[in-house]
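Lecture notes, unit on protein representations.

Consider one protein chain, 164 amino acids long.
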Amino acid sequence: MQEPKGDELDRDEVIEWYEKEGGIRLTRVNNKKRKILHDQTGRLYCLLVARETWKQWHGLDREILDNEIDWVDGVLIIAIRHKKLINIYEGPIRPLVQRKDFLSKGYKFHTREKGDWLFVSEVPDFSLKKVGTANNPKDLRVLMEKLKENPALMDKLMEHLDRA
């Protein structure tokens, strides 16, 4: 079975990075849309996550394109998971939304990393700047995932830590 394009643990790592490194608290706009977030001031963010092994393709939610006016100062965050780290890229989403006709059906696009930049193949003059790296080793991620799935194991671990 192939690994998912990106998962909630990857997304959570990026959100935690923004809170820790930038003092920006990102929360979901509503419970259904995991890609659409806002900060304390109400500024909108679109967070896309991919793994380097997935050829870095992404898709914008139709909601973003239907409500383009809401995204005038919106931010696009694309996080690329590598084996031992996540590269985090950021930039304004408006130029990409304005060029939505360049994107493939379903508003999908491909990215490629080069140095501190992430380029969008379908819109050659659009790129995002690398703003940081989250360093959470994959083994730790897998352990955390297993602990989330098994509350009894988590309780046992916490009990052990309390005694230590």
